[in-house]
Amino acid sequence: KAMGRNRYEFFTQNLQAEIISHKRTADDLLAGIENHEFVTWYQPQFDAQTNLLTGVEALVRWNHPHLGILAPDRFLKIAEDLNVAATMDQIVLETVLRDQARWAEMGIEVPRVSVNVSSRRLHDENLIDSLKALQIRRNRISFELVESIFLDEHEDIVAGNLEEIRKLGIDIEIDDFGTGHTSIVGLLKLKPQRLKIDRQLVMPILHSPQERALVRSIIDIARSLGVETVAEGVETMQHAALVRELGCDLLQGYAFARPLPFADFTQAARSGWTRAAA
Ligand code: C2E
Ligand code: MG
Ligand code: MG
Ligand code: MG
């Protein structure tokens, strides 16, 4: 009985500590937005055939005053719960537009930048107006959307927004493909420019015939419908060689570069890092 009680106290103490820490992170996060602690890092994507720098993904980081740089898995869920995920997406997009202007000023050629768009933001009825206000240049930005966005209700708002986004000259990409249960043909009917194959499918291809066959057929179907494919999680040159052989169009992963802060990315781009080391 005493044991049980200890255990109970142990649990409540733990739970309490967790609640306090969660509450604290939530408060910190809201303050962090006010204090401009959210920064945008960049990861390059290379053309599988030419090795040229062809795309860039913008990835949010929290430059936390005490904890240092934090990856999205530490705060995105909390941001969603606090209803500020869309705010964060907007911050990232505005940063990207400013950074693109800086690259242009420096005379550095940087291709289209993809930003991740949360479900909440795609459902926002004011999304299009806020995008128009930014006067985004055509074909310079693309939106990465996870497949689950297309599964829920409010399909009409989502479909309407997608249509308008495309009219603004912003590409649509399906992110993390292969992790959900969506039919590929259904998704491709949305006419995205690109399909990003999730790293959970890409990473095992060297050793697993199943994943290899799956990746091959995803690439084949996408290609037959005129949709480009991007392999995520290309961790080694062996992965790069194999997805290239399977017909993938773009490669992104640690084999080439990790996500980099603006200064490092710019440095690499400036010093002629327009080609992936083959
Ligand atoms: P994602 O969109 O699938 O982004 C790719 C993730 O894979 C990034 O993680 C990237 O650092 C990581 N990655 C890239 N290459 C490799 C590799 O070779 N191996 C491995 N193991 N990982 C690799 P990150 O930056 O931690 O972002 C995680 C997720 O957070 C993103 O997944 C995206 O869903 C979300 N996210 C990031 N930035 C934003 C944002 O601004 N807004 C929204 N709504 N979501 C974001
Ligand atoms: Mg993404
Ligand atoms: Mg992804
Ligand atoms: Mg992913």
Radius of gyration: 21 Å
Give the spatial strand order of the biggest sheet: 1-2-4-5-6-7-8-9
Number of helices: 11
- The count of β-strands is 10
- Could you tell me the strand content as a percent range? 15-25%
How do the helices and strands follow one another from N- to C-terminus?
HEEEHHEHHEHEHEHHEHEEH
- What molecules are bound to this protein? ligand C2E, magnesium ion
SS class: alpha/beta
State the end-to-end distance: 65 Å
Mean pLDDT: 90
Could you say which overall geometry the principal axes of the C-alpha atoms support?
globular
- Indicate the percent of residues in helices: 40-55%
Q: Biggest sheet, in brief?
A: 8 strands, mixed, barrel
Uncertain regions: pLDDT < 50 for 5+ in a row?
Answer: none
